[in-house]
Amino acid sequence: MPNRLSRETSPYLLQHANNPVDWYPWSEEAWARARAEDKPVLVSVGYAACHWCHVMERESFENEQIAALQNDLVVSIKVDREERPDVDEIYMDAQQMLHGHGGWPLNVFCTPDGRPFFGGTYFPPQRRTGMPGWTDVLQGVNRAFREQREQVEQQATELTRHLNLRVELAGEELAESPAQVRSRAATALLEAADRTHGGFGGAPKFPQPYYLQLMVQQALDESASNRNDAQRHLADSLRKMAEGGLYDQLAGGFHRYAVDQIWLVPHFEKMLYDNALLIPLYLDAHRLIGRREGDPIFGRVARDTADYLLNELQTPDGAFYASTDADSEGVEGKYFVWTRDELHELLDAQDAEIACRRWGIDVGGNWEGKSILLAAQSPDEVSRWLDLPLTDVETSLAGSRQALLEHRSTRVPPATDTKIIAAWNGMAIDALARAGAVLDEPRFINAAERAARFILDNMRSDDGALLRIHSAGRASVDAFVEDYAALADGMISLYESTGDEAWYAEARTMIDAMIERFWDHEGGGFFTVGREGEQLIAQRKPTQDGATPSGNSLAARALARLYALTADGRYADLIEAMRTAFSAYLSKAPTMLGLFVSVEDWLTDHRSVALVGPPGDPEIAAMKRDLWTDAPRPMVIMQRNDDTIVPQLSDKPQQDGRPTAYVCQAFACSAPVHTAADLRSTLAQPLPGSAP
Fold it and tell me: Where does the pLDDT of residue 691 fall: very low under 50, low under 70, confident under 90, or very high at 90 and above?
């Protein structure tokens, strides 16, 4: 008998629709029942690609006896964290306050008015390896709620009080410049760097793109004594990630994270946001390192990852799905692993041996008796080892890759979470617009435009406000600050890559709406939930960058880029107010706000390049190509149409009918130039307004 979740559109909630647990979606109906029956409420949060969410469902939520106990003792609410990041944020913070760590599934118990008092993540059905069983937890919570109510209420009150403390711990101006904060953050990260395997820290190991973005900016800083170290660690980290099992060696795209320190064994789910955030990073490394050193890996990985988005996550209408699962047929990673015998059945003997050496497929396997593909040997190393011409090896590998992909497509694939999430699509739009411009691949720009049009046309409420989710043919859930910010940021990238001012106009409209709906006029910074959205037990202000950048970091980047296009000081003033509001974090732990630190540094050091000339002019095209393929210096690129609406272009006319470029810093501009060669020369020189 389906439960109430059968009426939802979230693929994650629908996965639980046939559980014997009497699940409610997040709703007033659930809380009203808890109040009427005076029962504790379980808020259970997960997402469709979450491996341990599936394990707990199979072990406990599908068990008739356990479900009967749960139905008797608590009111159960299931939440898709991707639909309701506001709910997840509050109760995850409570879990971390209680235990110092978090994760999904997140299972938090609350009083009937929503205040949390106990929580955890995955629980086995019965006590196992020192972990309490789910039945023990349910019974213990019930006893505490009935017999120790005063202590439960005290715990709930204290947790809620802490949840409501303002995130701006010190509203003071920082004495350091943004460049100094960035340098301090980069130095701290280099001290924590894994010099053997790349990345930062030990297992489990996440890509952490905003840590690596700080490495890009430190490498570009000619005054930084550790710039070469930053560049080396950037290159080593990106190379090791792409050579390991974290990266899908056949189809492209990155898995969520590695469970080990060496990037070999991933958690096999693939998330739209991870790949959207890593593409620009590989593009920056391609521009900064790959082109100069003749190393194609960074550009290749960026291109193949962008193709992965188009091939496996793009909807028929052009937007992008949220994720694919780690499991297939109930087994984690089954879709992605191989044996030597399989390769010898699919390929002839020589091709199989080449493929096994290239992708590290051994007799005993490297994980649970099978092999996760990795770049174990380069084609050149395989060529020398087998005494074969390199061209023969490369041809063989190309054919084998296609054969393995075709065979893999006959397996039962991991499930796809078919939600369309506004913020994550904004990140994908940004990544694809950049990829199309840097790699000179118009198909990526076209894909970004299709996604943007879908969201603008299909994910708005009757009053024109942005909605966060599109699923099962229906848009729902009021958008959060990250949705507005990420979409605006993506549309600015579309403007830069296409020159179409309609994208600039959409971005500015969205940013102005974001300010109106989410800005905290008293404390500075943006709230997660807008003034007209559902107000929960705590009003949160997203600050720390995690798996995805915080809403405030994304908002700062969109504001900085819009300020560069408009010279409207109110956008820069908001970033200054955010700097003051978040000064405690910036002074004590700037790496927690990695993207915000990068944005501030970008804003104070960026150059604006205005290109003025008829569409299709070959010299304008050459200038633009140079700008996109040069080292990724802080820059915004503008292209003027006849009747421009971009304020920074209004006083920059075309001269003498010739293609014209202006280079500006701190809104002071160089003399106009007319050729790509002269533009390159101008960019190499200090400009008025540059730091001495």
Answer: very low
Q: Name the DSSP letter for residue 133.
A: P
Does the pLDDT of residue 301 top 60, yes or no?
Answer: yes
Q: What one-character DSSP code corresponds to residue 7?
A: G
pTM, two decimals, is 0.95
Radius of gyration of the chain (CA): 26
> Per the omega criterion (within 30 degrees of 0), is the bond before 105 cis?
yes
User: What is the residue-averaged pLDDT of the chain?
Assistant: 94
Report the distance separating Cα 130 and Cα 141, nearest Å: 18
Contact between 297 and 242 (Cβ < 8 Å): yes
**Residues 397, 355 contacting (CB under 8 angstroms):** yes
Say yes or no to pLDDT of 689 above 70. Answer: no
Find, among 255, 390, 381, the residue nearest to 312 by Cα.
255
How many Å apart are CA 468 and CA 457, to the nearest integer?
Answer: 13
Does a cis peptide bond (omega within 30 degrees of 0) precede residue 204? yes
Residues 72-95: pLDDT tens digits?
999 999 999 999 999 999 999 999
- Write the CA distances from 116 to 39, 94, 111, integer angstroms: 13, 7, 6
pLDDT at 171: 60
Question: What are the tens digits of pLDDT across the range 483-499?
Answer: 999 999 999 999 999 99
**Cα 470 → chain centroid:** 18
Q: What is the pLDDT of residue 166?
A: 54
Q: CA nearest 665: which of 643, 685, 680? A: 685
Structure tokens at 315: 């909807």
Query: In 44-81, which positions are buried (b, 16+ CB within 10 angstroms) versus exposed (e)?
Result: bbbbbbbbbbbbbbebbbebeebbebbeebbbbbbbbb
Q: How far apart are CA 5 and CA 119, in angstroms?
A: 23
Q: What is the pLDDT of residues 500-522, one digit of tens each?
A: 999 999 999 999 999 999 999 98
8 A C-beta contact, residue 610 and residue 666: no
Residue with structure tokens 């979740």? 5
Helix (H) or strand (E) holding 556: helix 551-566
pLDDT in tens, 228-254: 999 999 999 999 999 999 999 999 999
Rounding to the nearest 10 degrees, give the CA dihedral for residues 633, 548, 336, 374: 40
Q: Are strands 321-324 and 416-421 parallel, antiparallel or unpaired?
A: antiparallel
Contacts 24+ apart (CB under 8 A), 637-644: 637/496, 637/609, 637/611, 638/496, 638/565, 638/608, 638/609, 638/610, 638/611, 639/499, 639/610, 639/611, 639/612, 640/610, 640/611, 640/612, 640/613, 641/499, 641/501, 644/501
> For 320-473, where are the alpha helices, taking DSSP H only?
340-346, 349-359, 379-386, 390-408, 422-438, 442-458
Angle at 579 between CA 574 and CA 585, to 5 degrees: 145
- Token representation of residue 25: 């979606």
Locus of tokens 């490495």: 215
121-138: string of b/e by CB count within 10 Å (b at 16+)?
A: bbbbbeeeeeeebbbebb
Q: Per-residue pLDDT tens for 515-546? A: 999 999 988 999 999 988 888 999 889 888 98
Q: What is the rounded (10 degree) CA torsion for 358, 361, 367, 370?
A: 140
Q: State how beta strands 116-120 and 106-110 pair.
A: antiparallel
Confidence of residue 614 (pLDDT cuts 50, 70, 90): confident
Could you give the CA distance from residue 527 to residue 524 in angstroms, rounded to a whole number?
9
Q: How far is 330 from 576, CA to CA, in rounded Å?
A: 50
- Which residues pair with residue 467 across a beta bridge? 478
CA–CA distance, 192 with 199 (Å, rounded to integer): 9
Q: Can you tell me the mean pLDDT for 446-465?
A: 96
